[in-house]
Amino acid sequence: MKKIIFLDRDGVINVDRQYVFRIEDFELEKNVIPGLKSLAKKGFEFIIVTNQSGIGKGYYTEDDFRTFNEHVISVLKDNGIEILKTYHSPFHPEGIGEYRKASPCRKPGTGMLEQAEQDFRIDRKTSWIIGDKWADVKCGVDFGIRSILVKTGKGGKRDKKYKPEKYTYVAEDLLDASQFITENEPSRELREKSKQWRNKLK
Ligand SMILES: [Mg+2]
């Protein structure tokens, strides 16, 4: 079973410049590389889950998205970090043509995480989501994984309507988030399991 860190992209990995898709606008958010490296060292794998309503609204194309995303992934790779897969949702209720719909894949909907679970054997107990919007956090909470809001990017300022009652932590950035995760690893459930196992051996 894989323990996954679901990563929102814009405002978490790269600086969110409002519908960012041009490579010349790419800039890494602060502390991304050391944060992801320390998580990788602990055996976590990374999946990007990103709402891309800019496609649905006609601001840029699927190809523009793919080109920019491949750039993001190659920069991470150059720094020794692998991304298992990227899922994106191009839909929006105010989109155009076929993109105009309320999709369960658009966060806070859990569709992208459910798709990832079809593609990989994911352990929800040890997996997390990190995002800069409450919609990311709510998505994780509804999916049953621990959720962290980072103060980079939108920092939860724009969509408080999605703020769930229960969530795990608000972090300064990806490095702070990674420190919180590694300090709280293994999860309470796993610690409980290993205690039961140790008791059986007695
Ligand atoms: Mg974001």
CATH class category label: Alpha Beta
CATH topology: Rossmann fold
Taking all residues together, what is the mean pLDDT?
95
What is the CATH-assigned architecture? 3-Layer(aba) Sandwich
Ligands bound to this protein structure: magnesium ion
Number of domains: 1
Strand content: 5-15%
Radius of gyration: 17 Å
List the topology elements.
Blueprint: E1 4-7, H1 32-41, E2 45-51, H2 53-56, H3 62-78, E3 83-89, H4 111-119, E4 128-131, H5 134-143, E5 146-150, E6 169-171, H6 174-183, H7 188-201
Helix pairs in contact: 1-6
The protein binds magnesium ion.
Magnesium ion (MG) binds at residues 8, 10-12, 16, 131-133, 153.
Brief account:
The protein has 202 residues and is of the alpha/beta class.
Distinctive features:
202 residues; alpha/beta; Rossmann fold; six-stranded parallel sheet; 7 helices; 6 strands; 37% helix
Describe this structure in words.
The chain has a six-stranded parallel sheet, sandwiched between helices. 37% of the residues lie in helices and 15% in strands. α1 (32-41) runs parallel beside α6. The mean pLDDT is 95. It has one domain (4-201): 3-Layer(aba) Sandwich (Rossmann fold). The chain is α/β, with parallel strands linked by helices and 202 residues long. β1 (4-7), α1 and β2 form a beta-alpha-beta unit. Residues 8, 10-12, 16, 131-133, 153 line the site of magnesium ion (MG).
